[in-house]
Amino acid sequence: MTFLSIRHLSKSYDFHVALHDFSLELARGEFLSIVGESGSGKSTLLRMIAGLMVQSGGEVFLGENLIENPAQKLVPGYDEIKLIHQDYQLFPNSTVEENINRPLLQFDTKYREQRVNRLLIQFGLENYKDRLPRQLSGGQQQKVAIAQALAVEPEVLLLDEPFSHLDAIQKRKLIFELKELLKEMGTTVIFVTHDLDDALRLTDSLLILQKGKVVQKGNSKDLCEHPKSRYVARLFSPINLIPDRFNSYLRPADVRLRTRGELMGHVVDLRYLVHYNSLLIRLREGGHIWEVDDPIRKYQVGDRVYLHFDEEKVLVLKS
Ligand code: ADP
Ligand code: MG
Predict the structure, then answer these.
(1) What's the chain's Rg over C-alpha atoms?
(2) Tens of pLDDT along 140-167?
(3) What domain count does the chain have?
(4) Is 94 a residue whose pLDDT tops 90?
(5) Predicted confidence (pLDDT) per residue in 184-242, tens digit
(6) 12, 32, 223, 233: most buried, per Cβ within 10 A?
(7) Whose CA is nearest to atom 15 of ligand 1?
(8) Residue 100, SS3?
(9) Do residues 125 and 160 touch, judged by C-beta distance below 8 A?
C-alpha cells in the first residue's frame, strides 16, 4: 500500500527546469536511493517532498494528507518528514545529549529522557553524550545529526548526500549501522547521492535521475545488467565500445584476456587496485583504448593480449 505518493512534481527556476514531471510511490518502510550527477535535481526534489520549497507543479501526499508547501503553511516543514543534508548544523555550544534533546522540548521530561537515552544507545553515542560537536569525528557528528532528526520519530527520512564529508571507512560503517537501525524503526527512507557505490550499500532499489528526469528505476542488479542508456551504464563502471559494431559496449569485468584470438591489443597502462589490476589496452583496430580488469594480475605493460567476450555480456546502448 502506498504511503508516500509523489505525483507529477516539477520545479523550474526562472526558465531552467530543475525537475520534470516526477512521480513515485513508496510503501511504508521502503528504502530507495536516487542517484544522479550534480545538478540533476536531487536536492530540489527532497526539499519539495519535505514541504520546504514551493513546487511549480504536482503534489506530495503522506498517507491521505497533502504536504503543504511554504506558501500554504505558516511554519514550513513537518515533524513526520525529516530532511538531512551534508551541511546539517548541530548546535555548536550544546552537548550531544542536548542536541538530540532539542526537538523534544515540547514533550514531558520523562519521555524526553527515555527517548534521548534510547537514541544514544542505538547510535552508540552513550560515551560521547557530554561532548560538544567539535569534539567528535565527522562520522560521529553525522550520527548525532541523524539521531536528532529521528528524535521525534519521523515516518520519512530524506537523506541528501549526508555522507559526503566522511572518509570511505567511516562512511561504510555509518551506512551499515544506519541501515540496520532504520529497518528496525520501520522508517521510510529516500537517500540521494551522486555516488552509486553509496547507494548500492544502503538500498537494493534505485532510481536514476538525469537533468531533472527519471531515466530508469529498478533493483541494482537489473540496472547494472540492463541499463537503458550510456549514462546509467557508466554509473556502474566504464564501458568499452566494440570496434565496427554500433552502440555495442562491454564492461571491464566482462572482457577476458587470452594469448591468442582475433581482437588484439597491447597493455599500455596498469593500475594495481584492491581486487584486480586495471589495464588500459590499446586495440590494434582503430586504436581504441579499452579498460579491462585483470583479476589474476597476469599481464604487464607492453604485453600483447587478445580480448574475448560472451555475446550475452554485450550492452547495446543507443543513447
Ligand atoms: P542536485 O542536488 O542534484 O545537485 P539541485 O536540485 O541542487 O541538483 O539543482 C538542480 C538544478 O537547479 C541545477 O541546475 C541548479 O543549478 C538549479 N538550481 C538549484 N537551486 C537553484 C536556485 N535557487 N535558483 C536557480 N537555480 C537553481
Ligand atoms: Mg544536491
Answers:
(1) 24
(2) 898 899 999 999 999 999 999 988 878 8
(3) 2
(4) yes
(5) 889 999 999 999 999 999 999 999 999 999 999 999 999 999 999 999 999 999 999 99
(6) 223
(7) 39
(8) helix
(9) no
